[in-house]
Amino acid sequence: MKAPNFNIAAVERDTGLSKDVLRMWERRYGFPVPSRDNNGERCYPAEQVERLRLIKRLMDQGHRPGKLFAIPHDELSALAPRRPRASEPGHSVDSADLEELLALIKQHDLAGYQQAMQQRLARQGLQRFVQDTVAPLTQQVGDSWEEGRFEVFEEHLYTELTKRLLRQAISTLPGGPRSPRVLLTSVPEEPHVLGLLMVEALFALEGAECIPLGTQMPLLEIGRAAQAHQADIVALSFSVAFPQRQIPGLLEQLRMVLPATTALWAGGSGVLRIPRTTNAELITTLDDAIAALAAWREQHA
Amino acid sequence: MKAPNFNIAAVERDTGLSKDVLRMWERRYGFPVPSRDNNGERCYPAEQVERLRLIKRLMDQGHRPGKLFAIPHDELSALAPRRPRASEPGHSVDSADLEELLALIKQHDLAGYQQAMQQRLARQGLQRFVQDTVAPLTQQVGDSWEEGRFEVFEEHLYTELTKRLLRQAISTLPGGPRSPRVLLTSVPEEPHVLGLLMVEALFALEGAECIPLGTQMPLLEIGRAAQAHQADIVALSFSVAFPQRQIPGLLEQLRMVLPATTALWAGGSGVLRIPRTTNAELITTLDDAIAALAAWREQHA
DNA sequence: TTTTTGATTTGTCCTAGACAAACTGGACGT
DNA sequence: ACGTCCAGTTTGTCTAGGACAAATCAAAAA
Fold first, then answer.
1. Mind listing the pLDDT tens digit for each residue in B76-95?
2. In a mutagenesis test of the B interface, which of A220, A255, A261, A279 is the best target, namely the one with the most B β-carbons within 10 Å?
């Protein structure tokens, strides 16, 4: 198991840091310092890639690169999140239960996790399952990952298994005439789908017609889809990892390609710190989402 | 609905063409020719973005840019795929049936499509459903999209609904002691998951233990996951849209981070034209996948 | 017909400079 | 003590053009 060397494209893939940023950091901060191959192209050792991943993680928690590069490498991993997490210690009701579920993932016990979640779903019903189990659990997994207690692949595993549970639960809901028509998707570069699924579950429970388009829809396509499906509402999800600077511009562009009668809702932890806008309704919690749906209904009664 | 303008990052997002390529094409071929904003930065009108998407589509079919840019704009859409499709007219048994399913998607009839597929699943059983319905249907959807008969959002809708069906079917399979342990995932920049799900369904039917990690796992994480789950096999999927030049290098790097006892399988239409390698076993059809599993079992009996 | 070889095409990487948006920290006023 | 404004700093993204290797094509040789 010899350590492989990464070229700059591979590092971009694996860390999510753009080539431009990688080169700029090297110029400005003196890290990373890749060796060069015969063509003079950058060759990153695996160790530096790891460190870059750690730095990226800390930056997602609110740290700034200038500070991070000043810290000696071995102290990095001890850093605490700088901006307070949106954790609500208020109703961390059964955090012990949640810890148990997390432990199952951590032990890579797929079957055990699925079974435990199925039980909770049966016990709580879909709405409370989403709000009291899936949402806080996802938050916890994110936190654990940021603190380095979870590996990336463990988070992926959690996401994959939970996606399956939610989809399955949604598919068992009864059919019938439904309204409004809600188109659920996300913009390119935003692959996270769990939030969308939670909203879909809640909306479906409330009798809305959900049109799940998956993630990463080009803007013009979202416009076309809204028209083709005669959607009343287009609901987008932004995760906390999405580059926040891009969101206002995206919403503005999107507003332009959507029919004026179609509402545009943007939700997820990514919009928490976005300034209020007339282009879209910003929805920061699951309760907000349900409230927004009720408000829409009232307005279109 | 005024036409929005795209900056170069937005075009990269929406077309999948890298900034480098966009600038190079402008330099070499004189297209696209974006206007500039006050800062001298490129501003692409929506119309050019559309044309770029068309060009990308044609390139995925095997056309070369040099030729495409020589063709007057209005003849582009009439171009036929250049390299023969991997369509097997041999056993396009019930292509009429498939057309019917496609039509349901095209009409945006979610409920009708789901019902029709459920019926087929019940009638055919999972294995034949995967091989005789889902696989050719996916091929057809891809073809239709390449020929412009399907919008992107319609393909997304198809993918999303079909993913749900497959996952649901997989989750109903009985448990029990299973082997070998197969870890299913894809590399970063490869978001397509349908192929993985088909394989998972077939492998689960054959009694393998499938560990679905979702898509886009960083290479080092795949190594860690393989170790943590003590995977016997790591199965990757590459779609036809994945940049083929990167695949051999990826497989080489991955081989280095995996334990020697772990088999590495790479499948999907993306590996059709990849030269044989000792780093991984290349699997081009679903039948191959089943055969590979049988061979593995024989070798480890 | 098939294979080999040389020319062309094409994508990616390189350097280095510029600038705007976001953030910081202090001064000021309430 | 707290909010607000402003200047200074940090940081990411864009630009330009040059270079080169891998992929592909086309013509010559076997």
1. 666 665 554 444 444 445 67
2. A220
The interface residues of chain A toward chain B in range 3-22, judged by CB-CB distance below 8 A, are 3-4, 6-7, 9-10, 13-15
**CATH 3.40.50.280 is the classification of domain B181-299:** yes
Dihedral (CA of B170, A236, B107, B195) sign: negative
Distance from the A3 Cα atom to the nearest Cα atom in chain B, whole angstroms: 7
Task: Give which of B192, B85, B256, B207 is closest to A216, Cα–Cα.
Answer: B192
B225 interfacial to chain A (CB closer than 8 Å): yes
Taking the CA atoms of residue B252, residue B253, residue B258 and residue B262 in that order, the dihedral angle to the nearest 10 degrees is: -20
pLDDT at B105 over 90: yes
Mean pLDDT by 10 residues, chain A (301 residues): 75 92 95 92 93 88 86 67 48 72 93 94 95 93 81 93 93 85 90 94 95 90 93 92 76 87 90 77 91 95 80
CA of A276 to C1' of D3 (A): 20
* Domain range list for chain B: 5-78, 93-171, 181-299
Enumerate the residues of chain B whose CB falls inside 8 A of the CB of residue A252.
4
- The full length of chain A comes to 301
CATH topology identical between A5-78 and A181-299: no
- Looking at the partner chain, which of B3, B157, B218 has a beta carbon nearest the beta carbon of A213? B157
User: CB under 8 Å to A49, separation ≥6 — which residues?
Assistant: A6, A11, A14, A15, B220
From the alpha carbon of A82, which nucleotide's C1' atom is closest? C23
Pick from A100, A105, A33, A22: nearest CA to A73: A33
pTM of the model: 0.86
What CATH number was assigned to the domain covering residues A92-171? 1.10.1240.10
Distance from residue B273 (CA) to nucleotide C4 (C1'), in Å?
21
Please state, rounded to an integer, the average pLDDT across all residues of chain B: 87
Give the closest residue to B194 by CA, choosing from B246, B157, B223, B229: B157
Q: Which residue has the higher pLDDT, B175 or B233?
A: B233
Instruction: Enumerate residues 6+ apart whose C-beta is below 8 A from B115.
Output: none
* CATH match for A5-78 among 3.40.50.2020, 1.10.357.10, 1.10.1660.10, 2.130.10.10: 1.10.1660.10
Between CA B240 and CA B247 the distance in angstroms is: 11
Query: Could you tell me which chain A residue has the CA closest to the CA of B174?
Result: A111
CB A153 within 8 A of CB B183: no
| Beta strands A181-185; B263-267: pairing state | unpaired
Round to a whole number and report the distance in Å from the CA of A145 to the C1' of D8. 35
Query: In this structure, which topology does domain B93-171 adopt according to CATH?
Result: 1.10.1240
- A214 CB within 8 Å of a chain B CB: yes
